[in-house]
Structures are given as C-alpha cells and as structure tokens.
Design goal:
mainly beta
Length: about 100
C-alpha cells in the first residue's frame, strides 16, 4: 500500500503552473511538526513539498493562504534518474486530497 498523510501549515503560497500538455499543477509547501523533541527538548519541523495536479491545484491556488492548516493525503511517487551509469530515485509526495480542517465554507 502506498499512502501518506501529512498535517501542517502552509509556508509558501502555491503558484499555478501548466505543463506543455496544458495540465495544471502546483507545489504546496507545508511545515509539519516532528512527533518528538530533539536532544535539547525542542520540537522541530520539516518543510515538505507536495505536488498537486489538475482541478485540485487550481482550487488550492485560489483559496490557500500562508499559515492555513492543511491535511494532505496521497501517494509517494518515484522517478528514476540516470547519472554516470547509475540509477538514482527521486521521491515526491503527490496529493490526491487536500483539506482545510479549520477553514469555514
């Protein structure tokens, strides 16, 4: 099973882009709290970029503001990269659903 679920705050407004085939896309950057404290007792955060496609990308770019709490559910995708005769994999999070737990409307 290939599923991820992230909850965090938007740290940068997504910018709507279009592929050469006309498909709309954006990247949603969210700040996600780690579930443990570091050695100094402080909670740290990760900034995670999530790919959003088609109508969901358009909607997100129209309603999203910096600081919004969002939940993202989707899949992890891998893309092979060939370099010097070796294959490396680049991983990305692809959203299938994005919700605003505290937003009205």
């Amino acid at each position: 099973m290939n599923v991820f679920c992230l909850v965090g705050n938007v740290v940068e407004l997504p910018i709507l882009k279009e592929t050469t085939l006309g498909v709309k896309t954006c990247t949603l950057k969210i700040q996600v709290e780690r579930p443990f404290a570091n050695s100094d007792g402080m909670i740290e955060y990760d900034i995670i970029g999530v790919e959003v496609w088609r109508g969901l990308a358009e909607t997100l770019c129209n309603v999203c503001t910096t600081g919004d709490l969002v939940s993202c559910k989707g899949r992890i995708a891998s893309r092979p990269i060939e370099k010097d005769g070796r294959t490396f994999y680049n991983y990305t999070f692809v959203a299938e659903k994005v919700s605003f737990p505290r937003k009205n409307g």
